[in-house]
Write a structure and sequence with these properties.
Blueprint: E1 7-8, H1 12-24, H2 41-51, H3 60-67, H4 71-83, E2 87-91, E3 94-96, E4 100-102, E5 105-110, H5 112-118, E6 120-125, E7 129-135, H6 140-150, H7 197-202, H8 220-234, H9 243-249, H10 251-255, H11 260-267, H12 279-286, H13 290-293, H14 297-317, H15 332-346, H16 373-385, H17 388-397, H18 399-406, H19 408-419
Antiparallel strand pairs: 1-5, 2-5, 3-4, 6-7
Length: 431
């Protein structure tokens, strides 16, 4: 994402328009000596499957199963989409210890060559890198052709037909008014009267017994399953637990009318475990006898307030270094090393023989003119390895100061990646 010149497609249909243009008019031709050279029908089938993915993480195995083609063919056409600029890596697939293999994650992008050929005028955008602001009228036929090709076919509406066969033979002609059998005052159908034409035209006719909307009420089992599903969603170490098993564990508190927040408060009263090996057993141990101890709503409200106050106090006492865009490493060894580095940075060190004091201006910032060329190069190289240095400089010293120190191109690149949700920069080279 840091090196692409394309823009992020706003939706799958807009991305398919660019794919169809490459298929029919595009200049792409593969340079490899084997495999397909140009876009074909298999490329379009694969693009349609990728366009419907919520997260663009097309596993090769899934594409093989969906499209009924070989694994080598899938890899060929994925490479064609990447080389043409229609797919861009967000993160490459890898095998993380303890998490299993993960497929590569892509972003559906539209190259600049398509915008130029389709006469689209684009401008900067925070979310899409570039956004379309207009088009050339002479390119309207091409845009209509691409839009019609990318739009999914409309399904025919199914008409409701009654499966019941009427005892009467249907007549050749149909009538818009009720059929009148006889002119007598009495009728075999009972006292059925049709509303007047004026009420039908104005829509004022109302049913004599309107149906009231009925809301389905959960029974005891449904309440247990609802509480179990909410706990699995909100408690981190329960995310892999089975809903039926958790529903059986929380059956007593669910029958007593406990809310999800009250259950979480009781679980959090004791010290949190470093590692939960068996979530269902751990939950059962924490809730053992809780429905008997907190048997009234007043007691549950009091314990919930106490838990919330303790959480706020703990947050005020422990200010994490991991605020903002950074996330704590999953490895404990790496986390301990980073904590040691932060602790060392907090301790004031005695100035070395090569260190010199820099004058500070009225605004509290160091004048950049005092830095040597080698120092500026070292700072920019450090920013290339860790973009958090640029974000910290922008927050503390201002964006203008950061642009003077690290160049505007580097600051713009980090801000763009921050908006895309990425915190790691790949492929940057110092000038």
């Amino acid at each position: 994402m840091s090196t692409t010149d394309g823009r992020i497609a706003p939706n799958g249909e807009a991305w398919l328009e660019a794919v169809y243009w490459f298929y029919k008019y595009g200049p792409y031709a593969a340079a490899r000596p084997h495999g397909p050279k140009k876009f074909g029908g298999t490329t379009l089938r694969m693009a349609k499957a990728i366009a419907h993915l919520t997260e663009c993480r097309p596993s090769v195995g899934n594409l093989v199963e969906w499209l009924k083609i070989s694994e080598r063919t899938v890899k060929y056409h994925l490479a064609m989409l990447r080389e043409s600029g229609l797919l861009t890596y967000r993160s490459k697939g890898t095998r993380v210890s303890g998490s299993g293999g993960r497929a590569s994650e892509f972003v559906r992008t539209i190259p600049q060559v398509f915008d130029d050929a389709a006469g689209l005028r684009t401008g900067p955008s925070d979310k899409l890198i570039r956004a379309v602001h207009g088009f050339s009228p002479e390119k309207t036929p091409l845009l209509q052709e691409l839009h019609a090709a990318a739009r999914p076919p409309r399904r025919k509406k199914r008409t409701k037909r009654s499966n019941r066969r009427s005892g009467r033979t249907p007549s050749a002609t149909s009538s818009c008014t009720p059929m009148v059998v006889s002119t007598s005052s009495s009728s075999t159908a009972g006292d059925t009267s049709s509303p007047s034409e004026s009420k039908l035209a104005s829509g004022q006719h109302k049913s004599p017994s309107p149906k009231k909307p009925t809301r389905r009420k959960l029974n005891t089992i449904g309440r247990r399953y609802q509480l179990a599903a909410e706990l699995i969603q909100q408690v981190g170490w329960l995310h892999r637990a089975a809903v039926p098993r958790i529903a059986w564990i929380v059956r007593h508190v669910a029958d007593a009318g406990w809310s999800t927040a009250e259950v979480i408060a009781v679980i959090g009263l004791e010290a949190p475990a470093r590692r939960v090996h068996r979530p269902s057993g751990f939950l059962a141990n924490r809730l053992k006898g809780a429905h008997l101890l907190y048997d009234t709503p007043a007691k549950r409200t009091a314990i919930l307030d106490h838990w919330r106050d303790s959480r706020h106090a703990e947050h005020d006492r422990h200010v994490e270094w991991w605020e903002g865009d950074c996330r704590r490493p999953a490895s404990r060894a790496v986390a301990r090393e980073v904590d040691a580095v932060f602790a060392q940075l907090q301790q004031p060190d005695a100035p070395g023989p090569d260190e010199r004091e820099l004058a500070v201006g009225d605004d509290g910032l160091v004048a950049l003119e005092q830095l040597t060329r080698d120092e500026v190069i070292e700072l920019r190289a450090a920013a290339l390895k860790d973009p958090a240095l640029i974000r910290a400089t922008v927050r503390t010293c201002g964006e203008t100061y950061a642009r003077r120190l690290f160049t505007s191109a580097l600051v713009d690149q980090v801000q763009r990646l921050t908006r895309l949700g990425r915190t790691v920069v790949h492929g940057w080279r110092p000038a």
